[in-house]
Structure formats: C-alpha cells, structure tokens
C-alpha cells in the first residue's frame, strides 16, 4: 500500500514499514545549520529552496532508524523515493545525520560513516561550489564507499579494506553497504537519473551520487 500526500511545503510518503516526510527549513533547522557551519551568507542556494527530510533507513544493526537529510526542494520527493527503494532492497546505512552535527566538516562526517547531502562547501580539490552546496548530491556510507585519489590514496584509514571492489567478501552489513557497479543500490540511483562519482575521469568518488 502506498500513500503519497503532498501539501504546500510539506509532504509525506508511507510504504510498508518505510516512511518519509518533507518539511521546509524552519527556524530550528536554520539555527542548527548556521551554528553547525553547513550554511552561511554567500551560499549559492537560499534556505527557501531547501527541504528537510526525515526518512526510515535500515541500520547496520538490522533495525529500522529515522534519519535526517537536507536536499534541494526540486529533488526532495525523488530522494524519498530513492531511499524507499534502498530500504526495500535491504541496503544498510550506518547513520544519517545532518553534517551540521559534525561542525559542517566533511572529514568528521566521513569518519563517522555518515550518509548526508547538503553542505555549503567547495568541491574537493576545486574552487567551484560542490553539488552538495546546492542540495543535489548525496554521500552514502562514505567509509565503505571511499574517495580514491588518482594515485590510489585514501585519506580515511577505515576505508582501506574497501579499496578492492570486484566482489563482496561476506554478507556483513559493511560488505553489503559497499556499492559495486551494477548492484541494486547503483541501479536505484541510476533509475532516477542520478550519476555516480565512480565514473569520474580521475579521482573515484564512490560515495557520491548527484543530480545533474
């Protein structure tokens, strides 16, 4: 049974045990974003163009949890559907918190293996705004899906076991969180037109899915 109710600035998706709700950025979330360093004057997208999501995800402990994420309002409904399909596919997620809880630090969020989206920052190794600054990119299970530099270097030591990705070694949650070309998670994002950083020409950003 599927129920989709879309109200002005507020939506919700209920599907089996999965649920998702879409909210505007209220004063409380705004305060968290500014205090947490993920939003500041000069960011390329205004807060009115962002939405706050609360979504069910299947944790590494096999239990259901409620995560939170901020994305651009143009992709908010789509993101809830993507994560609904990931949930039904039993794809595990370590945690899903706002990057503001990590002081806006991409490094600290990755070290916590945090799945997140909006963060007003420049792209890694570039002076350009990241897709995350527009709320149109998601980093998912970043320890199991690391950023690998052209020389093969990985900055986060916990990601070393996940550098070789031709096949899965076991059925542990961390192993199932590792995204391999052609698997269910990659196909779900691709179904909605999202592109994968694994196909970047130089560095391979395996955690990174983005809306073109």
What is the topological layout?
Elements: E1 2-7, E2 10-15, E3 18-24, H1 27-35, E4 50-58, E5 64-72, H2 76-88, H3 106-111, E6 137-139, E7 147-148, H4 173-177, H5 184-191, E8 195-196, E9 204-205, E10 208-210
Antiparallel strand pairs: 1-2, 2-3, 3-4, 4-5, 6-10, 7-9, 8-10
Keywords:
single chain; 212 residues; alpha+beta; five-stranded antiparallel beta sheet; three-stranded antiparallel beta sheet; 5 helices; 19% helix; 23% strand; globular; disordered N terminus
Summarize the structure.
The chain contains five helices and ten strands; from the N terminus they run βββαββααββααβββ.
Q: What count of helical segments does DSSP give? A: 5
Shape, per Cα inertia axes: globular
Strand neighbour order, sheet with most strands: 1-2-3-4-5
Low-confidence segments: 1-9
Strand segment tally: 10
Approximately how much helix is present in the residues? Answer: 10-25%
**Sheet bearing the most strands, described?**
5 strands, antiparallel
Order of helices and strands: EEEHEEHHEEHHEEE
> How would you classify the helix and strand content by structural class?
alpha+beta
What gyration radius follows from the Cα positions, in whole Å? 16 Å
Number of domains: 1
Mean pLDDT: 91
User: What is the distance, rounded to the nearest whole angstrom, between the alpha carbons of the first and last residues?
Assistant: 31 Å
The amount of beta strand, in percent, is: 15-25%
